[in-house]
């Protein structure tokens, strides 16, 4: 071996072991860096003409198990999804309070019925009436507060979605910028491991926000897409866009997260209709979308269902009752009906006028099967039967009954054994003539109309109707323009529209608009805009039928005792009209407890609740439904915590296994350092020996 060969061997050994020491020191320095993968210097022999000529670096590689890395990314995404869901569910539990506390929903309902029970014992007590009104209003305030806080949480989720979208864009931009740098280092024989490590850190963070599919295309370049195949980083980079609304209500339409390609030359954003919302399977972003569009709306629907049941039951009984003395006027709610509409009532109702002492002035029994067919015919029959003692009118959808003399009062009752009914509600209850409570929106949308009835909506009015899936992703949209004359014409239009491929529209036997999914999957209706109006009543098509979940959510808003009663508690209807009384006889008794006892009986009366937000249909008492609601919310929180815990364990286990392979072992690195130091020293001594040999030769010469 020549002296030059010795020098070359020693120099390559010095350079290689020096690089190995640098790699080892880098590993030691990053021993506490989360997700850091240790680097290993790979060496190979230099061979020139079949003769060994030293050593060289073949590469510095990160020690990773690609399978474990992919599994870790997936587990991190699942854990992050359930972590954010658990955080929101925990917030909801803190809002609800303990079921045995007075300020919980169950506590507020118990408070109402305790007040009513006391009032039933002494219906003349003004203090007990005021106490009952206050307890009803406190329940309304509690359920409204919860409903508003749920909507505020939807706003929080929306804002967090916007933050995550911005972070995704920042991370994909970093990955895109690192790819060409890594390629350059790879092709020029440099060390790209540091750049690859930086990219890996970005990919790890990205995997917690969104589910990923990572493809290595060669030369250490990666392409990134979602699990469903939407490209994020490839030949070009995708930009996600989301514009969160400034405020959120039950009817707020959330814009989709759109995916736009960036022009590789100009960087301009290309227009796109591609949506990300329905393509995600895990990650924080998926969890936030589920919360915003599914979980939180379902909870809001459950609250609305409880409020609607509370509203309906109190008003049902109140409309069977009357105050003593009877009020001079009974004015209902806007039903959207015309005098020319079919009345569609069966059975009988009693309309009476009494004086201030409760003695009967006039009375008429209306058999709805024996008079004309329209609402106007009912009004005519009532006015004729009262013979001037009282007058019934219908103005812009609002029915009213007024005693002619200011000192007289009016009452409406059901005929025992042949009660009036339209869609299951008596005459007074249907028109809301003697309601005890009110809310921001109606609580009952069983209209009692049939498909053959005239729809009454002004031609040319429009309604934009969307159909979304259970997660809030839009499946289809249609702009309905009012035409034709009957409700059947509207149904035909909807079924012939593009929405007809998704759902079949019909009217139930009680006149409720029903959209039945053609695929069997859950769907939701959402009204984006509505300029329709039912004549002078100004009731829109969506509010007439309560189209969309917003109406059912908003049943929990503004729930309170009607102001006319709150301002004058003596108008609380706590008695019953004596239907057997003749003119001149007493029909209303001071101190009559029958109406108050009927209100008290609601505590044990079962009510048919429809399916709402994950709670199955049930026929239970108001208190039982409240308990079911709280139990359901508790179960949601428990499931979220369990899923988070399970996926956390899986994520930690996979990360541990990956760390066992990729992580830095201090003992191993210190051992390597000794080896590389010794090798470096040996190469240095070899170089020194070659130098001495040269010096000896030179002295001889």
Which SSEs are present, and which pair or pack?
Layout: H1 3-29, E1 39-48, E2 51-62, H2 66-96, H3 105-121, H4 126-187, H5 193-209, E3 213-218, E4 221-225, E5 231-233, E6 238-241, E7 258-261, H6 284-318, E8 329-334, E9 348-354, E10 360-367, H7 375-386, E11 390-395, E12 398-403, E13 409-414, H8 427-431, E14 437-438, E15 462-469, E16 474-481, H9 487-496, E17 503-507, E18 513-517, E19 523-530, H10 541-545, H11 549-553, E20 560-561, H12 563-566, H13 594-600, E21 607-609, E22 618-620, H14 622-662, H15 666-700
Antiparallel strand pairs: 1-2, 3-4, 4-5, 6-7, 8-12, 9-10, 9-13, 11-12, 14-20, 15-16, 15-19, 17-18, 21-22
Helix pairs in contact: 1-15, 2-4, 2-5, 2-6, 2-14, 3-4, 3-13, 3-14, 4-5, 4-6, 6-14
